[in-house]
Amino acid sequence: MSETNGSHRDEPPDEPGPEEPRGPYRVIGTPPPAQARTLLGEAEHISTEPVVRELPAGPDDPKKATGAERIVAALFLLSLLASIAFIAAYVALPVHSLDAVFRSNLALGLTMAIAFGAVAVGAVIWVKVIMPHVELVEPRKPLASTPEARAAFTQTFTEGAEASGFVKRPMLRRTLIAASAGLAIAPLVLLRDMGPLPGTSLRHTVWRKGLRLLVYGPNTPIRPADFAIPGQMITVVPDGYQDNQDALAKAATIIIKFGPGQLVPDTPRTYGTKMNWTVDNIVAYSKICTHVGCPVALYEETTHRILCPCHQSTFDATRGAAVTFGPAARPLPQLPLGVDAEGYLVATHDYYEPVGPSFWERG
Amino acid sequence: MSWIKARRRHPAAGYAVVLAGLVVIGLGYAAIAGTGGPAYAAPRGGPSALDIAEGAALFSHTCSSCHGFNAQGTSAGPSLIGVGAAAVDFQVSTGRMPGKDFGPENPRKPVVFTTAQIHQLADYIASLGGGPAIPSAAQVSPVGANLALGQSLFTTDCAQCHNFAGAGGALTNGKYGPSLNRSTPTQMYEAMLTGPEAMPVFSDTTLSPALKRDIIGYVTAVRAEPNPGGFSLGRIGPVTEGLVAFLGGIAILVFAAMWITMRRREV
């Protein structure tokens, strides 16, 4: 390929011979002599015409530039001082207590910010005031290769394919494809480590028939008579699982007490509260939002709304926690409640539907 | 004013005017929107017939226009029969009552009545139909409270609305869970007992008086906690500091970019 690429030519290595001096020494920053342009590979185009400057040699406003030069130099010196102060602060300031760390961090951060910031501000002033302002247009070559180069590539590729026998020898070709497939499939087996599959665990909580509701915190069972004032709300957990965070992640439940007639019963036509799952107008809902599983317990006693703090899903507690606003797609599941022989509130069954967010197999 | 003349055509002049306007409006609003003073609750003796009569007189000329002459309630205000002295003390000692306007939430305001007057009002309302009494100072004292249990209870049943550090938070339709930073222990106890506004009731049979004191102990203790790492920014949430740093940092970067790319004036 390279032999057809016309943009580069084989050139002799440009090590100067011992008898040939490289040229006059010059100081960095001074304008180069005209023949130095040979470095750009344009030696043959050099003419005797005077070189036209692309950039003016000096600033637009020399008087302003002189003033700006002092400012920029002062900023650079300020940066140097700040760097020295940074080192001094690092060495001198102690870090033996929280307050000392606070002061040390403040000094280090401040000095470093000044050290970087002064250089940056100085550089911008340098560019804006001291350098000349002209618009330069740099022509760009087309990105595509030349037609000759493309034709040569096609030829090389075709000849190479033929010479390799990839087309003529099907056994080699097929076994190579088989080997590649094996290499691709092997890592997929590692996905097994993401298992085991959750099975039916997403559909169940630890609630079951006869399990008492405990007020979370003191972990005391609760009688309907203890929860008799309409407008009450409290978080409850299943008896025996009060310290089991894995279980509580799904089983956390809130109970709310309503006045007579406030709850809207479930009918075949409209969604509502399942009244045979309530005790004395006490209703229990899952505390896990059906959107993405935040604990949902912002209960507004005046509007009977249960609000999720994460994405503002709003549920109507009087109508079986039906969604009235927000991204949640399902009502909060209702826990069937009953009373045991000693008069304490118990669950009469697990939640009948999965609690928390939707999942793929839920349907 | 020649300096304005010289600079008003400067490319940054527009931004400078807008920025100055925003600063003036912000400072002006902060100066006007003052905050109310603290409220007090002092220990007291039992109610007398005179207290009740005084309370009834206060009620009739400051509360009855909304709550009715016999506190039976009107279309503008609920019945107060049976709400109890604790509810009256909470509402009036936080300045929420007498209400000024009928917004979604009754805000905390400067207190109108003296402590003695508030107690007379409370005695009058209690005489109409009982209800929870004003707790004594010993009942609400956070001294010796179980702070760990208080935190557990607070984060389970209170923090959704009031924030994990009691800084308050938003509810629906403009209502909000108010900040607890200026609530006295008595007011917190009364709020749990009576469920003001949209707040549910946490009766003594569900959360015993000792548990209420644990919660009060947590809220008052967390106020005194230091803020290692810098400014607390009102403790309104874990995102606050990052948000402020983000918005402030973006603003600085935007101004820097504007300065770097600003074209020089054509003279």
Folded structure, characterized:
The complex is a heterodimer of chains A (363) and B (267). Chain A has 5 helices and 12 strands. Chain A is α+β, with helices and mostly antiparallel strands and 363 residues long. With 267 residues, chain B is mainly α. Chain B folds into 2 domains: 98 residues, Cytochrome Bc1 Complex, Chain D, domain 2 (Orthogonal Bundle); 90 residues, Cytochrome Bc1 Complex, Chain D, domain 2 (Orthogonal Bundle), CATH 1.10.760.10. Chain B is 50% helix and 1% strand. Chain B contains 12 helices and 2 strands. Chain B has a two-stranded antiparallel sheet. In chain B, helix 10 packs across helix 11. Chain B is elongated, with a radius of gyration of 25 Å. Chain B starts with a helix and ends in a 6-residue tail after the last helix.
Descriptive keywords:
heterodimer, A: 363 residues, four-stranded antiparallel sheet, disordered N terminus, B: 267 residues, mainly alpha, Cytochrome Bc1 Complex, Chain D, domain 2, two-stranded antiparallel ribbon, 12 helices, 1% strand
- What is the succession of H and E elements of chain B? HHHHHHHHHEEHHH
Q: Give the largest interface pair and sizes.
A: A-B, 36 and 32 residues
Per CATH, which architecture of the largest domain in chain B? Orthogonal Bundle
The fraction of residues in strands of chain A falls at 5-15%
| Poorly predicted tracts of residues of chain B | 34-44
Query: What's the CATH first level of the largest domain in chain B?
Result: Mainly Alpha
pLDDT < 50 stretches of chain A: 1-18, 35-43
Rg calc of chain A: 40 Å
Tell me about the biggest sheet of chain B?
A: 2 strands, antiparallel
Rg estimate of chain B, integer Å: 25 Å
How is the largest sheet of chain B built, in terms of strand order? 1-2
Helix content of chain A: 25-40%
CATH top-level class of one domain in chain A: Mainly Beta
Span of the ends, CA to CA of chain A: 59 Å
- The CATH homologous superfamily of one domain in chain A is called Rieske [2Fe-2S] iron-sulphur domain
CATH fold name of the largest domain in chain B, please?
Answer: Cytochrome Bc1 Complex, Chain D, domain 2
By DSSP, the count of extended strands of chain B is 2
